[in-house]
Design goal:
The complex is a heterodimer.
Chain A: H1 8-36, E1 56-64, H2 71-92, E2 95-97, E3 100-110, H3 115-127, E4 133-135, H4 140-152, E5 157-159, E6 175-177, H5 187-195, E7 200-206, H6 209-224, E8 228-235, H7 243-252, E9 256-260, H8 263-276, E10 282-285, H9 292-298, E11 306-309, H10 325-336, H11 342-361, H12 366-375, E12 378-380, E13 383-385, E14 399-404, E15 407-412, H13 445-473, H14 480-498, H15 506-523, H16 533-555, E16 569-573, E17 576-579, H17 580-602, H18 604-614, H19 616-621, H20 626-648, H21 659-673, H22 678-698, H23 703-721
Parallel strand pairs in A: 1-3, 1-4, 4-5, 5-6, 7-8, 7-9, 9-10
Antiparallel strand pairs in A: 2-3, 11-14, 12-13, 14-15, 16-17
Chain B: H1 2-10, H2 17-24, H3 26-48, H4 54-79, H5 88-102, H6 115-137, H7 142-162, H8 164-167, E1 173-174, H9 181-204, H10 206-216, H11 218-223, H12 228-254, E2 256-257, H13 259-262, H14 265-278, H15 285-304, H16 308-322, H17 326-331, H18 360-365, E3 388-399, E4 402-413, E5 417-421, H19 428-435, E6 443-448, E7 451-452, H20 458-463, E8 466-468, H21 481-486, H22 495-499, H23 505-517, H24 533-546, E9 551-555, H25 563-580, E10 583-587, H26 591-597, E11 600-605, E12 608-613, H27 615-620, H28 622-629, H29 637-641
Parallel strand pairs in B: 5-10, 5-11, 8-9, 9-10
Antiparallel strand pairs in B: 1-2, 3-4, 3-6, 6-7, 11-12
Helix pairs in contact in B: 2-3, 4-9, 4-12, 4-14, 4-15, 5-6, 5-7, 5-12, 6-12, 9-10, 10-12, 14-15, 23-24
The chains are: A alpha/beta, B alpha/beta.
Chain lengths: 738, 650
């Protein structure tokens, strides 16, 4: 076994060389990245091309997300604001105040989608940039905090993208919303569905300010229309899999599904509905169906879905400025090369409302403009604008669109509709996988167990690489979830570009990820083996940050999904179905576990790995090249981890930040199961899967939230009660401090 | 290559060594004082002079918050060595408690308390919860503690989200806005300065020293009488309360909380990164590091735009690999090094058992030769008053199927020196561990003096006057020899007030005297990790003696030690025994050493007592010979036992 013996001195020298190389690579990557950056610098001022004909400047300010969670929507909002600036200065000729024309200017800062930063920046806009007025950031969360600062400093803030109801219960004088408020989002859609005979509904919504308000409004409108709400379930933000909720819903067999969340949640709903064969007669999803990008991503799976929209270019609105909605869309597209989404139109409308109020007041004085905003009643390309006492535009109804043959058509309200509502979906009868008999109590247990085992199989294959790396090398790979994510992206890329089924691409992903693992081990991990755990934790954590953000820069933060032909579900009994994709994942997981067990037990390599795990020093003394064993172990484990990512890419949403929760689950399972124990990984994964599935299926309303807590509760309990681990692994777990 | 050059630079090529020394000593202190005072004056005067807009004050206030969280994190992560990956949970709980109490909204309690009692209660709630949770999670070590806290953090966030009736769920709560930036600015400035002052003071008290002892060697600290659990939970709870206070202030300023902005992982990450950059386990490290990090972020932010998060990851790796002691540690050798921390984690087995052999120079340096009159007679032989110091009966200890100690009775009388010998694996060290209460007994009882210690903890036993040394040497390696000594006082006499005082004059004098006696005085201000193996044995003995013990358990005090030094140790032990009446129970493989010192020897084999008597009696007992050499053994055990060189056949 020549490869196992080797010259340690030489390998150390090579390691040092490798480290230098690794750092050099990273630095040069960064330099390259910095040079090729084509974004405009942050904090710049738009529309600098000032014309000397202007009598002065009206200065506006906005904190918008250019990075972070809301980067996409933030960019749309910024383009919306800039559309107005360009129009007002270049086309309209400046804001009319008194006899003069005033140039409009907006100062932007990047709030990084972070509340603290946004608050800080708005304060800076007021104090240092001395803006006359503020425009809103993107999202209710950021608007809530920043509007309080605007209120305290008596600066007006007009906004179109923070619609949560609670914001307007505070009695603020300086906050105005041109868009329809969250609780009204679903009204026109539900009215139309009720008119077509819908009788029952279920609601699932993200547990955040905006979605909760939407869902509360939906529940009210459903009740008002005599539609029975069979179930309402919440789920936490950043969830990756809503199949437990969808299973529950499918068993209830409702006419209508109402889903509240943001763009990415629509991907989750469509994924789970497809996987489980849940096909209600109508699907109303808060954000998503109005966005062409979603249709591109999901294709047929989103066909027929309804979605509320603040605005569509096809709506029959017209105003004195910008002309009709279609005129606005043309102008917008001429500037930015893409059609406007409603977030952009809302932003333009917010700026326009402020513009109208300034001209009506004939002043930039806050009190005058506030009065003018209160009295404002105007028709615009965006629809009618008129604020009530809270500062909410109640004149504009919410529209509803439907995805028809891959196009977005407005179906409600009647005055804005361009086509009739298509309901019920399909041929109108329950399809082969239609509603399944309502099961309750113990009747649901078989389904919960099947779901749990399927989930457990997925966890097992996801956790394996983490467990073995820890067990053999003593390195806690905090970047584990990121390797899953990279593997998932590779499979998605193959699927998206060449239509390769993710299950087919597993071997290729395995090979590519092995190469990546090899490089990471050479360049980074070999330098931290044998160092204190904190060192390896922090270094791998740094690697995780790098991988997350690099993938975000390449693929954006949008949720993606790979398509597999192994989808749908097998119907075993009236109340029992088996999800096909997960079944295959489980089968492959068991196969992989078996192969690995054999590898460890029967081969020389396996013996070397086990020896190195037990005692590094002793193994190297008896002639095993431990460095090489580590290199091979790490490469194989990263290969498996990436392959696992490829396998789950049709089931879990593929996105740059899917890693950390998976890493935590891997840690929970490994710590309770035994380091490097293959049987333990399977047992622990099954246990966690079953607990989560039972909780999600049995607990009303917040079951999915509790399932998220469960893994951490199990982790902490397992560590505290049984610090030596449950199964026997490659090296003993010993978690006690003294 | 860049990294090599960087390393050279960090290694001090760019800054001449004398300058570094000066900066690390008096000069550094002077500079820090001048810079600190100047910064403080600037921070106080800035708003009064009208030189700062509200947004500048707001930015600075947020920075104070980050600094405070880092300082609090450093209390557990840096001083105590418990690296908390979920520290931001206390920030979230402080923020939420404040919001729940102050909010008038219908989706919370809607009781609308005034801010001051609300924030104070928030601080108390965070502290109390930290005490409860710490009680459980601080039983875990290393990465397990880290991840358990991360789990606690995520679980708390989800509980907050799910418990809508109290917290407003995912919608969150709004607070009545009060946005006088100056008030918050001065309040937080005062609190941060107070907090840093407090850690500075704490580090100098016995409490702070004990925390460092926990980080260095928790088991050792326990067996030297430090109530480790109580102290570490106390400091964890204090850090939780303090972070909760800043969380409450933050919620009030932000006027709005929801689970995702109150419980943010990046607060923990920033605290860790700031502390690492500044210097783990130092007083000023978290402050300098957090300010430095803010500055670095500004640079990254404006120059790398979208890539700044990637750059931040690279930065973290570079700090960990190339600047393990941080900014402060670069100048101060005593800062805890990241590499040193958690050495019981990854490379426990690599801890040096014997260390390098004592150099010849050591014995030449000895100043107080003790008369080498050790001919035959045991020193305690003439003593008439024989009260029992320790009495253990039918001790049983099992590990799974293996019975390591199987019904052993052992007693030691005052002023006596007793040897405990036996082949490898006969249960000697396990018996020691039972006596000093490292292990729980499966059967039997132990009395120490008049007290029943069967169910006491290790630290309580130490406080009752039983000190010990260890087979694998346990000293606090990053602390100086002097600090090691001063930390090993009789903790039973320290009391609460003593915990918060600096080491008293009497203790210092005693440490000085003992170091002199044990020939360690020339090394007094060196870190214990730099001592040779033999010196560390002496240090351990000194540490044991610092606590005024009535009985010292010596576990292989001579293994791996140069023969001349063994003679020195022997002399020292005898004079301690004679002059101070301290009893010894020693595990030894060096039978000659035992024969010289002890009047009574107990032989263990396979966990049972095989023989007991004078050294000569014992060594001639057939059972003993058989145990050592098998049934046909003809040689005497001493020939084998003298393996380390200094033994003589009796």
């Amino acid at each position: 076994m020549t490869w196992l013996s080797g010259d340690r001195i030489r390998s150390q020298a090579m390691q040092r060389h490798g480290l230098a190389l690794g750092v050099l690579l990273i630095v040069s990557f960064l330099l390259l990245a910095g040079c090729s950056s084509n974004n405009p610098p942050t904090g710049d001022r738009s529309a600098q091309g000032a014309d000397s004909a202007f009598a002065g400047t009206v200065k506006l300010g906005a904190a918008l997300s250019e990075t972070g969670r809301y980067a996409v929507e933030g960019q749309d909002s910024r383009q919306g604001y800039d559309t107005w600036v360009r129009w007002v200065n270049d086309v309209y000729g400046g804001i009319r105040i008194g006899a003069g024309r005033y140039r409009a200017e907006i100062v932007y800062y990047d709030d990084e989608s972070d509340a603290d930063t946004a608050g800080n920046l708005v304060q800076r806009l007021i104090d240092e940039d001395h803006v006359d007025f503020l425009l809103g950031p993107y999202s209710s969360g950021l608007t809530t905090g920043t509007s309080a600062i605007a209120e305290a400093n008596n600066v007006l803030m007009v906004e179109g993208n923070g619609t949560s109801d609670t914001m307007f219960e505070r009695g603020f004088q300086n906050l105005f919303l041109v868009a329809t408020i969250a609780s009204e989002y679903t009204r026109s859609g539900i009215d139309a569905l009720a008119a077509r005979g819908a009788r029952t509904a279920v609601i699932a919504y993200e547990d955040t300010s905006f979605s909760t308000a939407v869902a509360a409004g939906a529940a009210r409108h459903l009740e008002a229309n005599g539609i029975e709400v069979l179930a309402a379930e919440t789920y936490p933000k950043d969830i990756q899999d809503v199949s437990a909720i969808m299973t529950k819903f499918r068993n209830l067999g409702p006419d209508v599904f109402v889903g509240g969340g943001h763009y990415n949640d629509a991907v989750l709903f469509a994924n789970a509905a497809k996987e489980l064969g849940f096909k209600p007669d109508g699907m109303l999803i808060t954000v998503g169906p109005s966005n062409p990008k979603l249709i591109e991503e999901l294709g047929d799976d989103i066909e027929g879905a309804l979605g509320p929209t603040q605005w569509e270019a096809t709506m029959a609105y017209e105003g004195i400025y910008f002309g009709t909605a279609a005129d606005y869309a043309r102008y917008y597209e001429s500037l930015w090369g893409e059609p406007p989404v409603y977030q952009a139109a809302s932003a333009t409308a917010a700026a326009l409302a402020l513009h109208l109020a300034i001209e009506a007041a004939d002043s930039t004085d806050t009190d005058d403009v506030r009065r003018a905003l209160r009295d404002l009643s105007a028709d615009t390309f965006y629809g009618p604008i008129s604020f009530d006492g809270r500062g909410v535009n109640t004149a504009k109804p919410m529209g509803t669109v439907q995805v028809r043959d891959g196009r977005i058509v407005v179906v409600a309200p009647d005055e804005a509709a361009t086509a009739g509502l298509h309901y019920p979906l399909g041929d109108g009868t329950a399809g082969p996988t239609g509603p399944i008999g309502r099961a309750s109590g113990l009747g649901q247990l078989p389904q919960a167990i099947v779901n749990g085992i399927a989930l457990g199989g997925m966890y097992a294959v996801l956790v394996l690489g983490f467990s073995i790396i820890w067990g053999v090398m003593g390195v806690i790979n905090i970047a584990h979830g990121e390797f899953v994510m990279v593997g998932a992206y590779l499979a998605w890329l193959g699927n998206d570009q060449w239509g390769i089924d993710p299950f087919v691409s597993v071997p290729a992903v395995f090979a590519l990820m092995m190469a990546l693992g090899y490089a990471v081990q050479k360049g980074l991990v070999s330098h931290i083996i044998g160092r204190p755990h904190l060192v390896s934790l922090l270094v791998m954590f740094g690697l995780a940050i790098i991988l997350q953000n690099a993938m975000k820069l390449i693929f954006s933060a949008d949720f993606r999904r790979a398509d597999t032909s192994l989808d749908g579900s097998w119907r075993v009994a009236d109340t029992l179905t088996v999800p096909v994709t997960r079944f295959w994942i489980l089968a492959i997981a068991l196969g992989l576990l078996g192969c690995l067990s054999l590898l460890l037990a029967r081969t020389r390599l396996g013996k070397g790995i086990r020896a190195a795990a037990q005692n590094r020093e002793a193994a190297s003394i008896v002639g095993i090249n431990v460095g090489k064993v580590y290199l091979i172990t790490f490469a194989i484990c990263i290969g498996i981890t990436g392959a696992a990512g490829a396998m789950v890419s049709p089931v879990l949403a593929v996105q740059p930040f899917q890693g950390p929760p998976l890493t935590l689950k891997a840690f929970a399972i490994t710590a309770m199961a035994g380091l490097g124990s293959i049987r333990g990984a399977l047992g622990g994964a099954m246990l966690l899967g079953l607990v989560e599935a039972v909780l999600a299926l049995y607990v009303e309303g917040v079951g999915t939230n509790l399932a998220v807590v469960a893994s951490f509760a199990i982790l902490v309990a397992a560590l505290v009660l049984r610090p030596q681990g449950i199964f026997k692994g490659l090296r003993p777990v010993d978690a006690t401090a003294s | 290559m860049i990294p090599l050059r960087l390393r050279r630079w960090l290694g001090g090529v760019m800054i001449p060594l004398p300058l570094r020394r000066w900066l690390g000593g008096a000069g550094g202190r002077l500079l820090v004082r001048i810079a600190g005072a100047a910064a403080l004056v600037w921070l106080i005067v800035l708003p009064l002079a009208g030189g700062a807009s509200d947004s500048t004050l707001f930015t600075l206030t947020l920075m104070f918050t980050s600094v405070a969280v880092a300082v609090n994190w450093n209390l557990t992560g840096g001083f105590t060595g418990y690296v908390d990956f979920g520290h931001a949970v206390w920030f979230g709980i402080g923020a939420y408690t404040t919001a729940i109490l102050m909010s008038l909204q219908s989706n919370g309690l809607g009781i609308g308390w005034p801010p001051i009692p609300a924030i104070l209660l928030a601080m108390a709630v965070s502290g109390a919860l930290a005490a409860v949770i710490g009680r459980f999670t601080m039983h875990l070590k290393g990465p397990y503690f880290s991840i358990a806290m991360l789990g606690t953090f995520v679980a708390m966030r989800e509980v907050t989200r799910t418990w809508g009736g109290l917290t407003g769920g995912g919608v969150g709560l709004t607070l009545p806005p009060y946005l006088n930036r100056q008030v918050f600015y001065y309040l937080e400035l005062l609190l941060v300065v107070g907090l840093v002052g407090l850690t500075w003071w704490l580090r100098r008290t016995r409490f702070g020293a004990a925390l460092v002892a926990i980080r260095e060697d928790e088991l050792g600290a326990q067996m030297r009488g430090i109530a480790t659990t109580r102290l570490k939970v106390a400091v964890f709870s204090f850090a939780g309360a303090s972070t909760g206070l800043f969380g409450g202030l933050w919620a009030y300023q932000n006027t709005f909380v929801d689970p995702d902005i109150a419980f943010v992982e990046t607060r923990t990450i920033d605290a860790i990164m700031g502390t690492l950059l500044g210097g783990l386990g130092t007083v000023l490290g978290p402050v300098l590091g957090t300010v430095g990090l803010h500055w670095l972020r500004e640079v990254l932010w404006t120059n790398l735009l979208d890539y700044h998060l990637v750059a931040q990851g690279v930065l973290l790796i570079l700090i960990v690999l190339f600047l393990p002691k941080g900014i402060v540690g670069f100048f101060d050798a005593r800062a805890a090094s990241l590499r040193e921390l958690w050495r019981w984690g990854a490379d426990d087995s690599a801890a040096p058992a014997g260390g390098p052999v004592q150099s010849e120079g050591d014995s030449a340096r000895r100043r107080r030769p003790v008369e080498p009159d050790r001919a035959g007679a045991a020193p305690s032989g003439e003593r008439t008053q024989r009260t029992q110091i320790v009495g253990a009966s039918s001790i049983v200890k099992r590990f799974g199927g293996l019975t390591a100690v199987d019904g052993v009775d052992i007693e030691v009388f005052s002023g006596e020196m007793v040897g405990l010998i036996g082949p490898n694996g006969s249960g000697k060290t396990t018996l020691f561990d039972c006596l000093s209460r490292v292990h729980a007994l499966d059967n039997g009882s132990i009395r120490l003096g008049t007290a029943d210690i069967t169910r006491l903890s290790a630290y309580q036993v130490a406080r009752l006057g039983m000190a010990r040394t260890f087979q694998v040497i346990r000293v606090y390696r990053d602390l100086t020899v002097r600090e090691n000594m001063e930390l090993s006082v009789q903790w039973g006499e320290v009391g609460i007030r003593g915990l918060f005082q600096r080491t008293d004059q009497a203790t210092r004098a005693k440490a000085e005297q003992l170091m002199d006696f044990l020939m360690l005085d020339s090394m007094a201000d060196e870190p214990a990790g730099t001592l040779s193996g033999g010196q560390r044995r002496l240090l351990e003995i000194g540490m044991a003696l610092m606590s005024n013990p009535s009985l010292v358990l010596l576990d292989e005090a001579t293994s791996g030690i140069n023969p001349t030094l063994v003679e020195d140790i022997k002399d020292r032990l005898v004079s301690i025994n004679v002059e101070q009446g301290v009893s010894f129970l020693m595990v030894e493989h060096n039978v000659g050493f035992v024969a010289d010192l002890c009047e009574r020897v107990v032989v263990l084999d396979s966990g049972r007592k095989l023989a007991e008597g004078t050294p000569r009696q014992v060594m001639e007992a057939p059972a003993v010979i058989e145990a050592y050499f098998g049934a046909e053994g003809r040689r005497k055990p001493s020939e084998d036992g003298a393996g380390t060189g200094a033994g003589e056949t009796p």
